Amino acid sequence: MSRRRWTVVATAVAAVVAAGAAMAATSPTTTAAKKPIVIGWAFDSSGAMAPFDNPALAAAKLRISQLNARGGVLRRKIELRTCDTQGNKSDVAKACAIRLLGGGAQVIMTTCDVELAAPVVQEAINRGVLAVAPCIGTDQMGPKRFGTKGRLAFSFGNVAQDEGSAMAQYAWSRGWRKAALATDTVIIYFRNVVQAFEARWKQLGGKIVASETYQSLGGNNNVQNAVSRLNGVKADVIVTSTAGAFGALSTLVSGLRSLGNKTPILNSWAGDGTYWLPKSPKVTNYWFVTFASSFGDDPSKAVNALAKKVHAATGGFITGPSAIEGITTAIRRAHGSTRGIVLAKTMEKFHNVPTISGKVSFSKNLHTVFGRRYRVIRIQNNVPKVVGTIVAKVVPKI
Predict the structure, then answer these.
(1) What does the pLDDT look like over 243-271, one tens digit per residue?
(2) For 85-104, what is each residue's pLDDT tens digit?
């Protein structure tokens, strides 16, 4: 080979090598771009929210494993780090948030009640980090409670206005026209669901024949008083929103049935599950709406398969993977950004985004899901069964 030809070839090779080096320096698949997306999750393993947090977390872990097996999100693996709030004790929850954020969490997940979640949410949004709950059910997971910084707070639960509205529509479809309300005042979500039911019920032309209040978590005598008064009311349906884990549901249902009252009882997803059912008298004529069935009869085969894997006790388990899918969708749409405000702006534009829990939507005003299709489950003689689905047509103001 002549000296001149050798020089030309060497120059060409050097140019190719230099170009390759330049491309490697700017390629999105470099080591820096491959750093994992770190999600921190502060959850309650043993307190009142454990029946909701634990299944959601277990199902979310499976979904993350599936995503990572397919290469992650934009070629970045998802790394989940958890911290137990030990019953959502305020100081422990705050310490969990600080620990997770200090460890590099780019998104923080929290428990399923906005009041109990507040210490974690506040720490995250104060640092400009997106805060997400799998199943908080109020419009307070956002600016309404947390102010301007609350734009960074979202929930993949169903907003109470939507849920109460769906309950009213279902009750109306059953031919019920007279409703008695039984409001558990212990948390905002319980109160808001019943308020939304009432608002939508009146829009439909339904009549409220009684309105009682009680308080769970140690308010047994209070519940019994409400039972006595409700028993004397002629209603087509008794509407409530309360959870078995909070202690009042079994007392309310058993109290009415022990008195021979067979009036249908309609509850929100808080009343999901069979873990709270008394052995006697067996629960009958009891309905609730929920995200998904955990009993193997959900309309979706994928949901049934996942419920079996995580041994789900309530349909709320599906909100864990749904939240992960929503977060990763936002990251993709934001071209890989994990900045809180960028993800928040992206999620505010979600409209019928598909997830394993159904289509989810947000808006600037509502950072908790509306428009999702609910499963309606009936319990007869302590046996649960899906009897239909319902989508709220109206999100009433309360």
Answers:
(1) 998 889 999 999 999 999 999 999 999 99
(2) 999 899 999 999 999 999 99
Give the Cβ contact number of residue 25 at 10 Å.
8
Residue 312 pLDDT more than 80? yes
Query: Could you tell me where the DSSP H helices lie in 103-159?
Result: 114-126, 143-146
- Tokens 């279902």 label which residue? 170
Spatial separation of the C-alpha atoms in residues 302 and 307, rounded to whole Å: 9
Residue 108 DSSP SS3: strand
Q: Is 269 helix (H, G, I), strand (E, B) or coil?
A: helix
Letter for the amino acid at 167? Answer: M
Q: Give the residue among 216, 145, 209 at the shortest CA–CA distance from 224.
A: 216
Residue pair 375/291 in contact by the 8 Å Cβ criterion: yes
Element spanning 201, H or E: helix 188-204
CA-to-CA distance for 161 and 394, rounded, in angstroms? 9
Q: What does the pLDDT look like over 207-226, one tens digit per residue?
A: 999 999 999 986 667 899 99
Please, what is the Cα angle at 302 between 297 and 305, to 5 degrees? 70
Q: Which of 98, 112, 91 is nearest to 47 (CA)?
A: 112
The bridge status of strand 286-290 relative to strand 353-355 is: unpaired
Say what the pTM is: 0.86
User: Can you name the residues that pair with 194 across neighbouring β-strands?
Assistant: none
> Please, which residues bridge with residue 269 across strands?
none
The helix or strand, by DSSP H or E, that contains position 353, with its residue range, turns out to be strand 353-355
Question: How far apart are alpha carbons 294 and 96 in whole angstroms?
Answer: 30
Identify the burial level of 44 via C-beta atoms within 10 angstroms of its C-beta, where 0-12 means exposed, 13-18 middle and 19 or more buried.
buried
Which H helix or E strand runs over 306? Answer: helix 301-310
| Closest C-alpha to 379, from 281, 259, 260 | 281
Residue carrying the six token digits 């993977």: 321
Which run of H or of E encompasses 193? helix 188-204
